[in-house]
């Protein structure tokens, strides 16, 4: 039997490393291409927002028999970012 509860190995520093890797990959010239002050302000807020305690808090809410779960802090961060940028739907940009 596989226990499939979400595990956030590395916590908040792992999130920060993922952000840096994605910025370098998709925005190699981010310092000039992302020139909107509001964007940098939000990025700084979320850079410092450690949501890793949510992962432990939500641990008992997941079944050991469920499919591979998303990490709760990542889901919460996505919702907070969508509200911050006034995105009306998390899937609206994904559908044809």
- List unreliable stretches of 5+ residues: none
What about the largest sheet?
Answer: none
Molecular shape: globular
The count of β-strands is 0
- The average pLDDT score comes to 80
Helix percent reads 40-55%
Derived from helix and strand composition plus strand pairing, the structural class reads: mainly alpha
Helix and strand string, N-terminal first?
HHHHH
Helix count equals 5
End-to-end Cα distance, whole Å, is: 38 Å
Radius of gyration, Cα only, in angstroms?
16 Å
Strand content: under 5%
Count of spatially separate domains: 1
Throw out a few tags for this protein.
mainly alpha; 96 residues; 0% strand; 54% helix; globular
Written overview of the protein:
Helix content is 54%, strand content 0%. It has 96 residues and is mainly alpha-helical. The chain has one domain (11-84).
